[in-house]
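Q: Given only this backbone (238 positions), what sequence would you predict?
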């Protein structure tokens, strides 16, 4: 049976120093096309990246509400999604769905790669990937970011930070509980996404997309990045 996977593609992965990296977009697209050619059923959710952050900062300076900033971020994610379909060419379904209902309808009609951005204001693209995975009964989720995974503490601040190789949703909730979430600033994963993963019992692996081979490794369930396992027990493995 073909593997059904939802890939959340962080917008940062497509950018380099704040500018869209054409070569990186092509590299990621080629990996996705190769997996699809081997029989994988792939649904992709694209994030906003630095571009969305810039827009949100300007909107904030203009006095925009959190709702307005969220909606602005969604527009940017959809633009990124549309751009990525251009790299996928005929492998991709040509339209960007804007609701979960659209995704479900298209999912039942095509084996092409479906690409979307954000769906609902106040919801991260990681949460979108989780809810899409639950709706289409995906086997697993790959969260492609610009970091190696979840750490015991911020590796940019603490030199003794260690990569967590495996963690339950319950333990991850505790790690992220104090994180303040604002429009466009969802980091690796948010509490809403974790709750969806926990109830749907669909595992998620967080990997660094700066090396596109990590996407392949994650698809093959190799030991890369951080594996988030649905579960109430309070355990993790470094």
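A: Predicted residues:
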């Amino acid at each position: 049976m073909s593997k059904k996977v939802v890939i959340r593609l962080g917008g940062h992965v497509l950018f380099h120093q704040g500018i869209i990296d054409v070569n990186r977009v092509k590299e990621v697209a080629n990996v996705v096309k190769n997996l699809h050619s081997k029989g994988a059923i792939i649904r992709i959710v694209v994030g906003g990246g630095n571009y969305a952050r810039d827009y949100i900062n300007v909107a904030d300076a203009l006095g925009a509400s959190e709702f307005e900033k969220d909606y602005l971020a969604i527009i940017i994610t959809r633009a990124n999604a549309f751009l990525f379909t251009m790299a996928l060419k005929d492998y991709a379904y040509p339209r960007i769905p804007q609701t979960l209902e659209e995704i479900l309808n298209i999912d039942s009609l095509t084996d092409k790669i479906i690409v979307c951005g954000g769906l609902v204001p106040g919801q991260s693209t990681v949460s979108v990937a989780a809810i899409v995975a639950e709706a289409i009964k995906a086997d697993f989720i790959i969260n492609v970011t610009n970091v190696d995974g979840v750490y015991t503490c911020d590796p940019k601040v603490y030199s003794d930070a260690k990569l967590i190789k495996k963690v339950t949703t319950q333990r991850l909730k505790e790690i992220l509980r104090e994180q303040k979430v604002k429009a466009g600033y969802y980091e690796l994963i948010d509490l809403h996404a974790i709750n969806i993963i926990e109830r749907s019992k669909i595992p998620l692996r967080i990997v660094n997309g700066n090396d596109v081979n990590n996407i392949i490794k994650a698809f093959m369930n190799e030991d890369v990045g951080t594996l988030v396992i649905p579960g109430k027990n309070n355990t993790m493995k470094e």
